[in-house]
Design brief:
Blueprint: E1 22-26, H1 30-36, H2 41-62, E2 66-73, H3 81-104, E3 107-112, H4 120-133, E4 139-147, H5 149-165, H6 176-181, E5 193-196, E6 215-218, H7 228-240, H8 254-259
Parallel strand pairs: 1-2, 1-5, 2-4, 3-4, 5-6
The protein binds farnesyl diphosphate.
């Protein structure tokens, strides 16, 4: 089994683990992390950003190919103006500060969400980050930014409706596959596993279409403290999950009985 070690202390032995090709992470709990330390919420977000860099490194070394993280939802604009502007500043700083490290790790950056509706300066940061990193081979970091699962499905439906209006397709041509092909990033595989730290048991409008058959893994740890050990545990537990996609596993089917 592949065995790799990074420059510091961690090992990336995948024996007994299942490493998803495509992983989703809902980075939740920055505010509670800060509150527990009597710090402002912005300090929690800053610690969360540091931890995202660590997650990228760990996922890249484990062999994840697509890591989608929930950074800012279409609903997060309703937060106090000060918190929103601190978060926007942090996103820009993150790519300024860490892009050289992401480059060294071979990590390509992409964005999913309603990027076209963002203010021009943020749009530019997103597009430049994507362009600068497009040839990096190891892993794609997909940042869900101004993202809402319902908005994404609506976007895909509108694109298909436009194609019908132009006479390019018939309504009967609209299928699950054509909807998938009109989502924001159709080339990114659906996440096999979604990790949610901080104890909440919901998707919060994250990858609603793509998560139809994702395995969910939750932990009580707040996002800034979610590290290598828990990621490894998530992959260990994922190895024991039985993904049936609505069917039966071989051992439960009559065919399986006959064969065994
Ligand atoms: C939800 O936790 C988290 C967010 C709305 C922001 C997530 C942002 C980061 C982790 C910063 C780094 C991201 C990038 C792309 C640089 P919360 O703050 O609502 O926590 P709470 O539920 O404990 O209040």
């Amino acid at each position: 089994m592949a065995f790799k070690a990074d420059k510091l202390t961690k090992t990336y032995d995948t024996a007994g683990l299942k490493v998803p090709v495509s992983l989703g992470v809902i980075m939740d709990g920055n505010g509670r992390w800060a509150k527990k330390r009597l710090l402002p919420r912005s300090a929690g977000h800053r610690a969360g950003a540091e931890n995202l860099k660590e997650l990228c490194r760990n996922c890249g070394n484990y062999g994840v190919k697509y890591l989608t993280v929930y950074a800012f939802s279409t609903e997060n604009w309703s937060r106090p103006e000060k918190e929103v502007s601190q978060l926007m500043k942090l996103f820009v700083e993150f790519f300024d500060k860490y892009d050289p490290e992401l480059a060294e790790e071979g990590i390509r950056v992409r964005f999913t969400g309603d990027i076209d509706s963002l203010p021009e300066d943020l749009r530019r940061v997103c597009r430049e980050g994507e362009e600068r990193s497009k040839d990096r081979p190891k892993m794609q970091l997909i940042v869900a930014f101004n993202y809402g699962g319902r908005r994404e499905i609506t976007y895909a439906a509108q694109r298909l409706a436009e194609q019908v209006r132009r006479g390019e397709i018939d309504p009967s041509d609209i299928t699950e596959d054509s909807l998938s092909a009109n989502m924001y990033l159709p080339d990114v595989p659906d996440p096999e596993l979604i990790i949610r730290p901080s104890g909440e048991m919901r998707l919060s409008n994250f990858l609603l279409w793509e998560s139809a058959y994702s395995e969910l893994w939750v932990s009580d740890t707040l996002w800034p403290d979610f590290g290598y050990e828990e990621l490894t545990q998530a992959f260990r537990d994922y190895a024991k999950r039985d993904r049936r996609f609505g069917g039966l596993s071989a051992k439960d089917s009559d065919e399986g009985d006959k064969q065994s």
